[in-house]
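ARCHIVE CARD
Drawer: 12
Card no.: 0347
Subject: one protein chain, sequence and derived structure
Cross-reference: see card 0346
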Amino acid sequence: MIIDSAKLNGPCSCGRSHEMITKEAIIEPGCLKKLDLYTDKYCLTGKRAVIYDENTYHAKNIIHPAADQEIILDPSNLHANEIAVGKVMEQLEENIDYLVAIGSGTIHDTTRYCANDRKIPFVSCPTAASVDGFCSTVSAMTWKGYKKTMPGVAPVFVLADIDIIKEAPLYLALSGAGDIFGKYTALADWNAGHAITGEYLCPVIEGMTRDAVDAVRSCCTGLAEGDENAFEQLTYGLILSGLAMQLMGNSRPASGSEHHVSHLIEMQPAAFPFHSDALHGEKVGVGTILISRACHKLAEIEDITPYVHPYSMIPASQLEPFYGPALYPSIVEENKKDCMEGVTPEMLIKAWPEIRRIISTIPAPEELSALYEKIGAKKTLEDIEVPSEYLPQLLKFSPSARNRLTLMRVCWMLDIPELS
């Protein structure tokens, strides 16, 4: 399977002109053997550094392409953060002309950050279908404890070798499925923003993201059986979602309230005396069920008028002790230009019928739970090592983790019972 992403360049029916950096994505068995063929095709010349972690370097069916430099990171406590970046940059030779990331999400985010820092291109070679950020233009990092997007560069092309991907531990693929199912609520948030404020929404980008979800939904039951087609479709869905974000220029089509739940858990605010080692996609998958449940309860309100009040951010007297001194300044900075500024009660009341329709497109929480159960994915807070008693705080504070209009942030305008 080949995605010719270059054809998405240029004028769009939405009225904008899109720029696609990634020229092509190849998703097929054995394609990593063709690295030199594609570097020649896209005129990547000079010295090549290939970046792995030790687990990937010794993975089943792995291929080690010729390299002028290999950087192999210790996988112990390896995260996409300033520490991993420092380990790569201190080893990376000065005369390297392009980078090749061979690994999963952490290796890719670290590599794209370093490529951007050096102002050189990079190539994506995913070895597990675990996240949808392989084609991203930014690096999803936990920087000094705060989850944020950092500068990065999109890959010139992608080689997704199914011979390697299908041999990765199953929980990685299930994490990828969770990341994809998060698009149900992310797309609802985007459409809600469009309904309330007229926020830009591209039907082509939205359609690509829905196609990604459909591709994964149609095949995910085959993952546990090792069905090669299931892994190919999952990888296709993840890459397509990433390309949609690249067209958009940010993560809006693919990241909403469910991701903010994941981000909040990953940041470990002072009010959370627990730690979750769950993968990003696992947390997003659980977050999707939680947000689905909250949204469907919200949609039960036919007339929102009696519950609406003017918008205001959660007061500092609550935010500061919740996040603690290490994280609170970053939260203030993130929310400085509030995305909900100017949203009036009248705007929300007018948009409410459309918002209820949008919520109806989200699968019910029971449907999602049944699907996760069928494929063996994590589906509850306890599954991701989060005590369930913290659910009300997750729903209340998670919108502050990212300055983005979402249905959960809209709830800050509503006097209604808890949605948990």
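Annotation on reverse: The chain has a mean pLDDT of 94. The longest helix spans residues 228-248.
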